[in-house]
């Protein structure tokens, strides 16, 4: 039996090398393509393993049959060992066949992680590997988080997994009738990769591809809440934008205009578009806040200087600014016309900073912030008191 197994083990090892050993990183188109193929690799690896086990069982069974009439003691002992081996391979092959059926179903359906659910699911807890955006729904009832594997919703102290495929939405921008986004499809999805620019009006159950579908992914993207004017930092030339840099569209991504960005200093890290005035856009850099009133052609620095980490225009046009002062996170509300600022009380956030800011469009007293270390807080009284709902990417529903 040892001799038989010594021949089989190398074949089994060869089959196992079909499985990719790399742990997928996050963000790039190539990485998402590899992630989408993981299910196929697993399926074909199990199929090969099953075939090896089945072939081994057949060959050993034939050898046992040949030794059925063995008369000498050595052959009878060999037959006994081979019969045991055949039994092992038989049940192992059956187990592998069951695994083939399960993995085959997972590949055909896109896997439980990517299946387009028809209804939202209640979750006891959530884990956020990465976050690309956060915003309240237009009716103010739900707080949406765009994470690596789809959307997560916080509503009435409960976490929900909304209906729809679990796409990796980037540049996530909520508007008054849905959201715009870029990003990558869920593993197993038949959607093109990357998304270019898409729009959903049913909370992610489906989306409409607007432009550059299958061509490019925008990480730096923001959309006017009511104007629906789209601004993006274009990372590379494409069919719609011949150069890199800040571009905008006022016609649902059909046509684009390059901006001059005169007067802006530093490396852009945050972008926000005025809710109603399509010409007004704000950019945050390590030098401060820069606001343009002519579609990004010219910028002026207003408000706080120093490192800016997040920007957000509320539905009324006030600009919220997340920054760092003396190694601690800060949150400021600005009137960009009067150029007046006011500090908003936030939890003590050190060695971290605000990555996303949101305000309930129906109730201005409700605020939410999320940090780069994936700590999430909400306030129902304009920032006087805060409740931590996400702790380093983990959130738990409150027991009812």
Automatic annotation (TrEMBL):
Record-annotated membrane-spanning stretches: 41-61, 88-108
SUPFAM superfamilies to which the protein is assigned, alphabetical: Oligoxyloglucan reducing end-specific cellobiohydrolase
Keywords: Coiled coil, Hydrolase, Membrane, Transmembrane, Transmembrane helix
Chain coiled-coil ranges: 60-87
Signal peptide positions (record): none
GO molecular function: hydrolase activity
Protein name: Glycosyl hydrolase
Organism: Paenibacillus validus
């Amino acid at each position: 039996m040892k001799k038989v197994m010594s021949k089989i083990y190398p074949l089994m090892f060869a089959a196992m090398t079909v499985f990719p050993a790399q742990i997928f990183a996050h963000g790039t188109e190539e990485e998402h393509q590899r992630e989408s193929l993981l299910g196929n690799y697993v399926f074909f690896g199990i199929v090969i393993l099953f075939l090896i086990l089945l072939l081994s069982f057949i060959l050993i069974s034939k050898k046992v049959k040949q030794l059925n009439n063995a008369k000498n003691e050595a052959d009878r002992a060999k037959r006994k060992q081979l019969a045991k081996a055949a039994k092992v391979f038989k049940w192992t092959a059956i187990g592998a066949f069951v695994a083939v059926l399960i993995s085959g179903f997972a590949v055909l359906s896109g896997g439980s992680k990517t299946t387009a659910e028809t209804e939202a699911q209640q979750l006891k807890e959530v884990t956020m590997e990465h976050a690309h955006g956060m915003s309240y729904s237009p009716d103010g009832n739900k707080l949406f988080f765009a994470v690596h594997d789809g959307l997560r919703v916080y509503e009435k102290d409960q976490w929900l997994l909304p209906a729809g495929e679990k796409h990796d939405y980037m540049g996530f921008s909520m508007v008054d009738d849905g959201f715009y986004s870029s990003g990558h499809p869920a593993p197993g999805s038949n959607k093109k990769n990357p998304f270019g620019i898409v729009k959903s009006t049913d909370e992610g159950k489906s989306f409409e591809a607007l432009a550059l579908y299958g061509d490019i992914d925008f990480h730096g993207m923001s959309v006017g809440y009511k104007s629906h004017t789209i601004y993006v930092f274009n990372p590379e030339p494409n069919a719609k934008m011949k150069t890199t840099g800040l571009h905008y569209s006022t016609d649902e991504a059909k046509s684009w205009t390059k901006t001059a960005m005169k007067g802006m200093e530093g490396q852009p890290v945050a972008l926000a578009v005025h809710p109603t005035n399509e010409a007004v856009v704000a950019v945050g850099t390590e030098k401060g806040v820069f606001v343009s009133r002519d579609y990004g052609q010219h910028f002026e620095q207003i408000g706080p200087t120093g490192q800016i980490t997040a920007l957000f225009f509320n539905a009324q046009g006030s600009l919220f600014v997340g920054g760092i002062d003396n190694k601690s996170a800060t949150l400021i509300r600005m009137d960009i016309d009067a150029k007046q600022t006011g500090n908003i009380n936030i939890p003590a956030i050190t060695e971290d900073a605000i990555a996303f800011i949101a305000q309930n469009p129906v109730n201005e007293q409700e605020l939410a912030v999320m940090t780069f270390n994936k700590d999430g807080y909400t306030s129902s009284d304009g920032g006087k008191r805060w409740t931590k709902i996400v702790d380093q990417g983990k959130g738990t529903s409150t027991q009812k």
